[in-house]
Amino acid sequence: MMIYRHNPLLDANQTISRFRNITRRLERAEQIAITGVAVQRPSDSPGQWTMLHGLRSSLADQQRWQKAMGTAEDLLLGADHTMDAVSSTLKAASDLAIQYANETYDADQRANAATQISTMRDDMLALANTKIGPRYLFAGDAYDSAAFDASATYTGAAASSSIQIGDGQQVQVAFDGSQVFQGSVDVFQVLGDLVTALQNNDTAGITTAIDQIDQASKQVTGAWSDIGYRLSRLEDARSVATSMELLLTERLSNATDADMAEAFTNLTTLQTSYEAALQVTASSSGATLFGLL
Amino acid sequence: MSLFDSLNVGLTGLNAASTALQVTDHNVANVSVAGFTRRSAELSTATPIRRGLHWLGTGVSVTRIGRSADVFAFRRLLSATGHASAAVGKQSILSQVEGLFESDTTSLRQKIDGLFDSMGAATADPSDSNLRREVVTAAQGFADTVNSVSRGLVSATDTLDQTVSATVEAVNTDLALVASLNEKIASTGGTLAGGDLADVRDAALTRLADAIGAAAFYEKDGTVTVRIGGHAAVSGVGARTVEYDPRLGGLTLSVDEGRVSITSEVGGMIGGQLSARDSLSQWMTDLSALVTGLADALNAQHAAGFTSTGAAGGAIFTVGSGAAVELTVDAALTADPGLLAFASSATADAGDSGNLQALLAIETQSVVGGTKSAGAAASDVTSKVGSAVSLANAQADVAVAAMDDAQALYINLSGVDLDEEAVRLVQYQAAYQAAAKVIQVTNDTLDALMSIAR
């Protein structure tokens, strides 16, 4: 038969052990209720920790790529607006050339038109040297200096610079000005030739320039379409990144966040247990037979 | 039987009751002493004498002062104590170290991700000095975290070694004490003093179980043999010594042939801490593999690129060669981020990010042991730490609960119950009063006899 001795030391040890256990669980429950996070340390859920790291890493990637998309968008939109202006300038030059190709105009009038075309050529050079921030858009990878010098000679480099916008996805944000403005047709040369023809009252030369301006416009339109395509890819990538960010945030939250109703219920239960233990201990009489002898 | 014989019989009753009262008094006085075992006065009828045709009793004698020590329960308590101390010892070390790998604000994995994130951001404009500075800052942050983890592991190991060394000294003191008490207890036999010495010996055995997981075996001659890791550390009146030197074989016990290694065979606090030490050592190895793999890969790729001035790239990181992992970022890079070799060609155009892209690709390459990326390796070691801590926590909870049970059982069987002692007090008080009454009546009878003779 088991003997159960009423031993004060045993009672004290068991009471201390009981309080130690409740206090530890209470501290943990308080921490969860305050932070709202159930998984705070690797030991809280070791099997999930690698997955949580992966989720956080992927979330950081999505946020980084979205930031990079902003930078890429600024550059591409800048190029887009520039191409619009280039196209408009070529259209204006073409309209003027068509107008002054007409036999009704005399040499003086054509000479005045030459001045306007010359101004358009200067504007074109300025557009070719467009900067977004410190970056020359059409200088290729050598975007820290102007793409063209005053004589319209390309001083830039080939274009390979790209920005990462997704997992294995890059978008090129550099433009080789020599291809855009001097590919199969040299835009500056064409405008220069038109200026010369107008100054020389050369209607045949003016007519030739009209054809060349038309080819230059097609060349610019081609480059412009490419920019539009890149902007479209950017938009698609942004949509994916936004969705992924939401998904990853939700998964991370599901994996780590505490069920607040459960957390507060648990906390309340433990607080009640603690208070009950305190009351039981305080009301324990510790009476023995010695008190009655 | 003469009246004088009656007086002697009464006297034996008085002495026996008095001794039993003293034993009860001793129990009550020591009720709150941890490890005290209840004493009991074992009384037996004294040897009768023959008077003529009759055998006459000669009263009562105190045979011995017994000790209510349940050997089985005590050995179970020692075993449970050893296991609990081992579990708690290991848990305390590992839970401290967990915070090195993962804290509220940072982690090894986060710093690796941050380094590659900064490189990714730099692809927007490889020539931008601010973006380059952020890459260098991220590299420094990674190095700082690695060094912090490494130094934390070294510090924890050093502290652990010091604690084990101090505990080993205490173990040797207790081993010598047990051997000394073995000799004394044999000479004092079943007396209060002998019981008290046995309690002191049991306290030493408990400390040995707590410290090193020692086991006790009670011999027929009253001595206790103490075994550590299966080897006799105390036998009779002889005691062995334990030594600890982490550089030379770890924990050893002296034997007749010299010394024997017991590093992997001990329990208690020392056993738990040595087990934790193995874990710390493994994690340092994992950290070293991660850092070396990543640094080598980044340095090799960086050397293949060109700086903003067209010079070939140097090393980004230097990995120290000591026992602890020490990682430093090249001082020249820290001073001039323009030395980051992002370009793939010596012309080093502002937008040439060819080598930067190659550096970025290392994030997903298996640079650690040829099987894992750096980030995955960091997550793995952190997960290993978490698993070890979680297991240690669970084992400690179970072991402590088992020890509490064993302790409760031992105290139930061997401890003092105040109600029981109160009853004994009343019992022996009545016995004393009765014996005193016998003496008084016998004395009165003698007086009556004397008065007849006058």
Fold and architecture overview:
The complex is a heterodimer of chains A (293) and B (454). Chain A has helices at residues 8-35, 46-100, 107-128, 177-182, 187-199, 203-256, 260-283; strands spanning 131-132, 135-136, 162-166, 169-172. The mean pLDDT of chain A is 90. The two termini of chain A are 28 Å apart. Chain A is mainly alpha-helical and 293 residues long. In chain A, the strands form 2 sheets. A two-stranded antiparallel ribbon of chain A has the order 1-2. In chain A, a hairpin with a 2-residue loop joins β3 (162-166) and β4. With 454 residues, chain B is α+β, with helices and mostly antiparallel strands. Chain B is 62% helix and 13% strand. Chain B contains 10 helices and 13 strands. In chain B, the strands form 5 sheets. Chain B has a 4-stranded antiparallel beta sheet. A 3-stranded antiparallel beta sheet of chain B has the order 9-10-11. In chain B, strands 1-4 form a two-stranded antiparallel sheet. Chains A and B meet through α1, α2 and β3 of A and α2, α3, α9 and α10 of B.
Poorly predicted residue ranges of chain A = none
Helix proportion of residues of chain B, in percent?
55-70%
| Widest sheet, order of strands of chain A | 1-2
Overall 3D shape of chain B: rod-shaped
User: What percentage of the residues of chain A does DSSP assign to strands (E)?
Assistant: under 5%
Tally of alpha and pi helices of chain B:
10
Q: On the 0-100 scale, what is the average pLDDT of chain A?
A: 90
Largest sheet of chain A: 2 strands, antiparallel
Residues in β-strands, percent of chain B:
5-15%
Assign the structural class of chain A, choosing from mainly alpha, mainly beta, alpha/beta, alpha+beta, or little secondary structure. Answer: mainly alpha
Distance between the termini of chain B: 23 Å
Rg of chain A, nearest Å? 39 Å
- Count of helical regions of chain A: 7
Pair with the biggest interface: A-B, 55 and 62 residues
Rg from Cα of chain B: 37 Å
The biggest sheet of chain B amounts to: 4 strands, antiparallel
Number of strands of chain B: 13
